[in-house]
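Backbone-to-sequence.
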């Protein structure tokens, strides 16, 4: 029994010694590692110091010169960009102004063309109106000449009327005078000539007044009297009938 206890105690002792030895070895390795790192750090620090110390003043001047040169280039680039921005802005403003001027020019040109077109239309209209008025006057002159020729022929014919024709015309004239209501305050000449166109039935188809120096009221009253007298007295014979009758009227007493 005592022997077994001794053997067990010996084993425990050996284990303890082994652990202590291991701990000792670990302490040695850690110390060596720390010393190694410290030496490496010192080497790096010394190397940096040596590098800084090894740069000459001339190299420092060169580096400073390079830095200043880069700075000048950056400032020049910045200045150039600023100038380019100003130029671009001025260019855009100039283009905008140019477009505005072109738009105003086009607008003015359109207005001028419109004005010219209106003036041309006005001139054409005035020319057409002048032509119309001229043609109207020419037609009126032709009508007057035609009426005057008819009156001359009728005067010549009246001088050669038979008793039946003279009585027929007098009957027509009397009917018209009976229907003639002259305005009280109208102004007129003593004699007015009326050219009356009629059908064989006596129906009046047109009335024209010629050579009457009266106002509108007086002339209209005579025209109304003729229309009011339609149909006119029928001719007793076809040979007596006159399609166009020229009648001279004086103011009824």
């Amino acid at each position: 029994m005592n022997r077994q206890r001794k053997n067990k105690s010996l084993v425990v002792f050996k284990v303890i010694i082994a652990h202590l030895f291991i701990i000792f070895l670990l302490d040695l390795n850690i110390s060596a590692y720390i010393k190694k790192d410290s030496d490496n750090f010192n080497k790096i620090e010394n190397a940096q110091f040596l590098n800084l110390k090894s740069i000459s003043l001339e190299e420092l001047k060169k580096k400073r010169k390079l830095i200043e040169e880069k700075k000048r280039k950056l400032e020049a680039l910045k200045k150039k960009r600023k100038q380019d921005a100003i130029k671009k802005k001025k260019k855009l403003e100039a283009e905008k102004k140019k477009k505005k001027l072109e738009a105003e020019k086009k607008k003015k040109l359109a207005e001028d063309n419109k004005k010219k077109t209106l003036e041309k239309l006005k001139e054409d209209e005035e020319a057409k109106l002048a032509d119309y008025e001229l043609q109207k006057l020419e037609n009126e002159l032709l009508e007057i000449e035609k009426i005057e020729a008819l009156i001359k022929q009728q005067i010549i014919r009246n001088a050669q009327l038979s008793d039946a024709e003279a009585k027929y015309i007098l009957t027509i004239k009397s009917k018209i005078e009976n229907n003639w209501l002259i305005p009280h305050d109208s102004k007129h000449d003593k004699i007015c000539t009326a050219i009356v166109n009629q059908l064989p039935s006596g129906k009046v188809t047109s009335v024209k007044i010629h050579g009457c120096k009266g106002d509108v009221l007086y002339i209209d009253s005579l025209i109304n009297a003729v229309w009011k007298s339609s149909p006119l007295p029928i001719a007793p014979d076809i040979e007596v009938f006159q399609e166009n009758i020229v009648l001279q009227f004086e103011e009824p007493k």
